[in-house]
Amino acid sequence: MIPVHFGQRDRPLFGVYDPAPPPRKRSAVLILNPGGWELIRAHRSLRTLAQQLQRAGMDVMRFDYRGTGDSWGDADDVDSLRDWTEDVDEAIEELMDLAGVDRVSLVGLRLGASLAALTARRRPQEVERLVLWEPLPRTDAAPAGGPPVDVPAEDRPALAVPDAVLAGLVDLDIALPDRIGLHVLVATSGNNPDPASSMFGGPVDHISVPTSPECWIEDSDFGAGAVPMELIDGIVSWFG
Amino acid sequence: MTSGGYRESVSLFGRHGTMLGFLTEPIEPSEGIPVVLLGAGIVHRIGPSRASVHLARALAAAGHRVLRFDLSGIGDSVRAPDGSLQEVVLRDIEDAIDHVAGSSGKVVLLGYCSGADNAFYYAAGDPRVAGIVLFDPTIHRTTGFHRRQLATRLTAPSAWRNVLSGRSIMLRLEQYADRDTAARPPDYYGLLVASPEEADLRATALAARGARLLYLLSGGIREYCNSPNQVSEALPNGFEPDLFSIVWAPHVDHILSTVGQHEWLYDTVNRWLTDCGFKRGYSHG
To answer: Which of A133, A164, A229, B248 is disulfide-compatible with B228, CB 3.0–4.6 A?
Structure first.
């Protein structure tokens, strides 16, 4: 595990890079977290996923968007959803440099799935595979609990997804054009319905583990979510 | 990383080089005492609602070197190869103090919830700890607690309505029926909670060497602490009013969930550091 700061010097992002042990598959995976409160609750699960992918021979990186986690800034420093897609671009460049590869796969959880799909649409030549883990329904405008509009500054949630990002998610269409020809996996747990057929015109693979815990929801007052091992194993197996 | 008055670096430290920590330091040379932040439960180093990130950066800009880190097996720190969880936590705190203050420097520990229990438990055995900030630590229930609780119930109209209507009994039956019997993995809460007698002894030892304690008690712990006086009640011999301070903050919640609560935390801690004389005499830079 190698902690790294990357991106622009005056507003660096923080990431954790897990290089593949030999024999390497020369395949790199960038994990995109769900942001907001869910970032804390899902941390153990995303770390576990990274370690499992690493053991399977892949180079893996996780990182925090600006204004979140260990990265630079606060929620006030995020002007739009575009800021976080730019951060994803920076992370892709960093991972390509670290792993010495030309393409990366993206795994996004919840809001991270939206960012992953947007990125795949913008950079089809550089995205190898795409995993959408519990992608947000299209109509869900406030996935991580957006604050009411008129609250005083001091009463604003300290960890919510910034308003500017939530605004960018309203009616966001993350469907991928067929012509991209990307390998896509949709992974769901709990009682969530299969969103694949309604979101994508083209074929996608789908893993559903109804008994898996929803890792972005706090479990038993632990402050974090339980780790859905079966679902994680399924995602790792899909990479082959 | 350099920003408004502080710089931040990340490293792997500890006796095995496997603990991930962020050191946030003042850009200008300064004399503030180093501060080590201890997280709650299994929440990673950013702290409840990212409070540790905000607090570390603000305290660094105010002249303190601040370390926030993951205990072994939590966040991104590797699980320790040996030792019980209790032993590992104590060892990790010792390594964190070594990292930020060296073998002879003084330090302030600041812990949230179980992190506060860890700080209190550890501090009595390490003279480098000159002060402790305890946000929502375990406060043992006292006779005073039960008396106040009873008085509250006897004077609450809703309690009488529940008794007379039979709802009180139904609620207790439902609570029993819903009891969660699922097996859970061992977690990091309650590992280092001293018994009432031991807590009093540890407080006595801390007071004897002049350590300063700041209790920050939020509205989130009313279930086991219903008055600021409960701290002195629970430490009948060890409580030293000249050294131990209490801030009763019912407007604050247990996870410091708002921007205003983060500002309150920084203002309160920074003022206490000033009042204790922890702003000068601890050169680094």
So the answer is: B248
User: Dihedral angle at the C-alpha atoms of A78, A83, A88, A94, nearest 10 degrees?
Assistant: -90
Read off the amino acid at residue B205: A
How do beta strands A127-133 and A104-109 pair?
parallel
Contacts (Cβ under 8 Å, ≥6 apart) of B89: B71, B118, B122, B188, B191, B192
Tokens of A165: 């990002």
* Residue recorded with tokens 């671009």: A89
- Length of chain A equals 240
d(CA B217, CA B246): 8
pLDDT at B194: 81
CB A86 within 8 A of CB A9: no
pTM score, two decimals? 0.91
Closest CA to A12 of A97, A73, A98: A73
User: By CA distance, what is A219's nearest residue in B?
Assistant: B184
- Quick one: tokens of A85? 């897609």
Model-level ipTM above the cut of 0.85 = yes
Q: Which residue of B has its CA nearest to A15?
A: B10
B11 to A43: CB separation less than 8 angstroms, yes or no? no
Chain segment B144-200, per-residue pLDDT in tens: 999 999 998 888 887 777 777 777 777 677 666 655 444 444 455 667 888 899 999
- Separation between Cα atoms, residue B133 and residue B245, nearest integer Å: 10
Q: What's phi and psi for A51, nearest 5 deg?
A: -65, -40
Cross-chain Cβ contact A222/B258 below 8 Å: no
Q: Do B259 and A222 touch (CB under 8 A)?
A: no
User: B60: how many CB neighbours lie within 10 A of its CB?
Assistant: 25
Q: Does A70 touch chain B (CB under 8 A)?
A: yes
pLDDT in tens, A135-170: 887 655 454 445 455 678 888 888 888 888 888 888
Residue B226 CA to residue A209 CA, distance in Å, equals: 44
Answer for the pair B71, B81: CB distance below 8 angstroms, yes or no: no
Which two tokens mark A130?
């795409």
